[in-house]
């Protein structure tokens, strides 16, 4: 049974969310503040976090920042409609998905199941990816370049995994979005993907302005260019 940490301070929402999540076979703990959430997180193992953005003593971003210092556990943000401008910030910080209030409980459950499926698919790999001086230790969720661990957000990590698992293959933008986010990436526009590509390049390329590893195929998508055929 997957353990889920729900962080929400709206009592009108908590009961319905908790009941619906448990009814679908998940075990859930509820926290109403940043402090309470971090205490629970540090003392238990969770498979997924659901974070409301606005909390009495801070924000869901505060929790996400702390968690991402040591874990790539999946994170879904709950955001009010007038907070949607913060979505890109949340995804860049390491969030994996978001859902806008008001929402249907069935939609949230679908997002939870889909995100857990994607996460399990990544973690089931038992080998390492290695090319262009970059090694991904899939079981440890760790990326190493020239002996140095790279600090990647969860989305950057998944994007790099996807590219390196498909060496020298052109992946369309639609294909990438469908693999990283459900519903064919309908809630993330192409500009957001471009931002992630640019930031990933800044961490893996020797000269991000003249990339040699992560190539743009104009009008189509992107390709992981294996130099010297050294993909393992």
Automatic annotation (TrEMBL):
Record bears the keyword Transcription regulation: yes
Keywords: DNA-binding, Phosphoprotein, Transcription, Transcription regulation
Single GO cellular component term: protein-DNA complex
Domain Response regulatory: 3-116
A molecular-function term among this protein's GO annotations: phosphorelay response regulator activity
Residues recorded as bearing 4-aspartylphosphate in the entry: 52
GO BP, one annotated term: regulation of DNA-templated transcription
Residue ranges of every copy of the OmpR/PhoB-type domain listed in the record: 124-226
DNA-binding region residue numbers: 124-226
Name of a matching Pfam family: Response_reg
InterPro entries membership: CheY-like_superfamily, OmpR/PhoB-type_DNA-bd, Sig_transdc_resp-reg_receiver, WalR-like, WH-like_DNA-bd_sf
Protein name according to UniProt: Response regulator transcription factor
Species for this entry: Acidilutibacter cellobiosedens
